[in-house]
Write the structure tokens for this entry.
Amino acid sequence: MRYMTVAAFVVAGAVGLGGCSTDDPNRRAKTGAAIGAVAGAVLGHQLDSSSGKWVGAAVGALAGGGVGHYMDNQQRDFEYALSQEQAQNQLEIERLRDDTLKLTVDNEVSFDFDKATIRPSFRDSLDKLAGVISKYDRTVVHIVGHTDSVGSRDYNQQLSERRARAVTDYLVSRGVNPSRLESWGRGEDQPRASNETEAGRQLNRRVEIFVKPIVQGQEQRAYEPPGY
């Protein structure tokens, strides 16, 4: 189950855009949208309903050849801003095969057991995270909550969703554009380790943050849920 934030799309006037139409109210729900550089706007961008392909120039999307460099810089800034958290094994940063950045947050430092309220001690880390996310606005950020197997499957699913939404809402409160954020709960379905031990259960209680680049011509992929 997913929790989707409310996307606010701004249609710019004819500033060198040649009058491209952007008034399809269902476009975002169908395929996601490319984020522009101005207030997360989608400018001069349409979906061809017959082919299902994106047409027009997406303002703010990355050209294929520039994706790696852009994500290199973003990874460097994450690592610098969150160096203390990494040194204390509270957070891991990985680069995935498609240039997505994956940040894994130890749930023991972010939430109390069986709670979905962010611990005050973790807010400073989220403030740093929000600063880097806001700086690199040509990405879509997916927040994914996970639990261990203690309790019922339905309860764990709901708890993972609440935790992911809590992180999402906090980032919005720190100025991250909500149209760039997607929130998901995976419950107990994707464990990192065995739930038979306390050490394994601790690893399974976590929040993962996937930062996916918006690539020109493939914009809808940035909004697809992480499949890792």
